Amino acid sequence: MKTFEKNYWSLYLNFLRDFKGLTYKGFSIPFFCIYPKFVFTSNNCWKNILFDKELSRHLKYQVKDKKEIQEEFNQYIKTHQKKSLVKNKQGKVVVHVDGGLRFPGETFHNYFDASRTVILSPFQSKTKDNRLKSTKKPKVKFISNTVAVRRKSNKKKTISKNTGKSRVPDVIEKIGVTNIPVLYLPNYSTNTDKAVAQVQNTARTILKSYSKHPLYGDRHFQRTLLVQISQVINWIDKVKNFLDKQSVSCIVISNPHFLNRILALAAAEKGIPTICMQHGLIGIGYLPKIATVDAVYGNFEKDWYTKIGVPEDSLEIIGHPKFDQLLTRIPMSRTAFNKKLGLDASKKTLVVVVRETYDMEEWKLLIKTISDKYSLNILIRDYPGRETNTLLKEFPFVRSTKDCDLYDILPNVDAVVAYPSTVGLEAMLVNKPVFILKMESIAEIELQNRSNSFPISRSMVRSPYFADYFNGLDEMVQDDPRKLGELIINYFNNPSWESYAKKKRDAFLPYAYPVTASSGKRLRNLINRLIS
């Protein structure tokens, strides 16, 4: 393991163990905290901690392999797990619909019995805002290595953060499902202020004992820890109340973030099986695995999980119901598509898939390489909701995909070039050639040198698992934008390259996405197997 990776996971293992005494209703709170928010936004850690080869002398526990993190969670899960699953055929199948689930309405209509299914929303019902707390941020005063909040009485106040109000309040409406009841998790809340204050005071005491610790002494870490204690306790309270009041047979979640971890562990205590859906290319955020079964895209993910110590029988190749639409949805016509985006119908169309401002210089070089030698319609597809106009300003002849649905775009272009993204997989599922600009993992010394001027971000670390997903495409994956641009030109000019691209796609898909039947149907069969 490289120094950065070793320090990242070692700090996490130490955090889990050093703060294990922070508990609520039998749960150790650190296991539910959002660890990346501690390390990737703390002021000192980027340069002074994660790249420091001497960090080990500050840590009691050293991680040599990521398996150790998964094993830590495996052992913790066992302490909350019933010996066998409870078969509750009469209970409801609960689908936790957050921003990461991305099930289309058709999946609910076709594969979920409305009388036996409940949609669970983590967001506050629009008609019951009276339960929301104030969203005003408390003023914080830092005292050495502890955190206090100023009040007129100068007493410490519980630090909390509103977790009921949604940044995407229409997430349920977007699904378009009207026949399945929706339950709102914030409606199961009770007053936890006293419990939060007690645990936060315990945390302050622990922090004092680590006054010289490189991470725990960081002010942002301290503040974030106290806020997350409040969030975790409130969600534990809501989830346990929900499971006590509702008869549940199975829970479907989207990813292993902190609320879904709580749902999975609270369900495990009752013997309720959980299914965690994959919602993007596998990477650092998918560790640890916490659900009874993880429903993955294909063999790549199955192999990835087994290498870090996950039992194979807790993994199921499902694909994803969202991708079912690629086969069933009738897309916009090519004529209407060209007219909407102002494209020249006599030219081939290439869509360039980017993410915000990452690797902008490389994308500029790629577009210049292509446009200098070949006349194409070039479209820019940015990460949804985070569009940037950098490339549109640099190249007036390129077009934005605007508000076009991805599943209207892919069938109506002739080729796709992207960063390592699920868009590449989706494009291949509709038989499009895919080229990948895969930036190599940045050397640690370069990252360390950049750390004073760059924002702290996981994306800069470039998880090798995330990037290597497309390596089976061979030459169609390049880290040199000039070379990739030349290959794209070759594809449009040379019939043998078209044949090469098809050959690589046909070899890639059976391993990466061996799902031939409906993914929604495969999920329904898995649920039936777990509850019957």
Description:
The protein is built from 21 helices and 17 strands. A seven-stranded parallel beta sheet has the order 7-4-3-8-9-10-11, with helices on both faces. Strands 14-13-12-15-16-17 form a six-stranded parallel beta sheet. Strands 1-2 form a two-stranded antiparallel sheet. It folds into two domains: 3-319 and 521-531, no CATH class; 328-512, Rossmann fold. The radius of gyration is 24 Å and the shape is globular. It has helices at residues 3-18, 35-39, 45-48, 67-78, 105-111, 171-175, 193-209, 219-245, 258-269, 299-307, 321-328, 334-341, 360-371, 390-394, 406-409, 422-429, 444-450, 464-468, 481-493, 495-512, 519-531, and strands at 23-24, 27-28, 92-96, 117-121, 140-143, 146-149, 182-184, 248-253, 274-277, 293-296, 315-317, 349-353, 377-381, 399-400, 415-418, 434-437, 477-478.
